Amino acid sequence: MKLVNIVGARPNFMKIAPIIDALNAHNGASRNPIEHILVHTGQHYDEKMSKLFFEDLGIPKPDIDLGVGSGTHAMQTAEIMVKFEKVCLDARPTHILVVGDVNSTIACALVASKLGIKVIHVEAGLRSFDRTMPEEINRVLTDAISDYLFITEKSASENLLKEGVPAEKVYFVGNVMIDTLIKHREKSLGSSILGKLGLAAVQSKKPSPYCVLTLHRPSNVDDPETLRTILETVHEFSAKMPVVFPVHPRTRKMIEKYGLGGLLDQGLKALGTRCILAIEPQGYLDFLALISSAGIVMTDSGGIQEETTVLGVPCVTLRNNTERPVTVTDGTNVIAGMKKDDILRSADSAAGKKDRRAKTPPLWDGKAAERIVSVLASL
Ligand code: UD1
Prior knowledge:
The protein is α/β, with parallel strands linked by helices. 45% of the residues lie in helices and 14% in strands. The chain is built from 16 helices and 13 strands. The strands form two sheets. A seven-stranded parallel beta sheet has the order 3-2-1-4-5-6-7, with helices on both faces. It is globular, with a radius of gyration of 20 Å. The N and C termini lie close together (8 Å). The model has no long low-confidence stretch (mean pLDDT 96). Residues 9-11, 43-46, 49, 70, 101-103, 134-135, 216, 248-250 line the site of uridine-diphosphate-N-acetylglucosamine (UD1).
């Protein structure tokens, strides 16, 4: 097997890290090593959206960087395809491995499948059933052309079987993102981010309750009325506890464009005063430290719904659906939607209640990447 692993955007990095570790562990112990290289498409290129994660997670420097950058969906996808096709023609891999649901995932999967290279999809089968989400299109299409589909939760296998994917292509292995969380949880306790932001005295392990907000979905941030409603609602909630908001570059642009910057603060205010503390996007360890000690997390991210479930931190999802239903049935996630009253009601009832009833979903045990590599080694 000659394998090309692919990353492109921020949520890919924490998924690929344990797979590379498990491949290297396998190669150190086996007489049948799996040759592998790492390609970065360059979809995310900022230091804070990419480089920091390589450092925090110890991911080796990519062997090839396509340097694609931002653009419209068609431009970005097409440029990745043209450049990745050359890589495949030069490197002649037998298999490629893609993770998640970003444009880099579908672009590389499409190139490989047309060249007769086997496609391995990690985090297959998740469905929001909302085709207005670019990620949903990427998921459905990637799964349709993948040869090996590794899934994180049972719902994914039901979705894939309904779409006609043969059961023998589907492997329930657990969640590589949680492998990374489990590995780095202790190290993240050493982060000084809470002290730096004034959320806790540097030495204190007991910050007062605060909320972490993340927003980046086009459906939330590209529409001025939706973005205004969400920010005004969170601003109102922030009278109860300060809100820390690491702002995604796309969201920052939109906040400036729609003149909503007045709802954000640059420093913490006294308790009881409304405060949304806007900060730069954080690296993996600092962000994990932030959400681990939070009283509540409000987000439109998919991965954060999973991370809060394992951490037992209440999560209010600012969307009308989730492709990760196990975070609701087993975890701490509540789907609140984007309406003011619904968000406030969900946030009020969830805030501060570390959910002891939440269960860790099956196989989210830190060993998903090992399972994936043992399947790959047996091919
Ligand atoms: C992408 C993924 C989304 C994922 C998210 C995590 C797709 C379709 N979407 O969305 O699934 O949850 O990443 O962040 O693949 N930008 C920068 N610096 C960067 C990257 C982006 O400034 O390093 C800005 C650019 O102006 C760009 C905008 O953010 O136009 C959006 O970036 P893009 O990669 O197109 O999509 P995301 O919204 O980040």
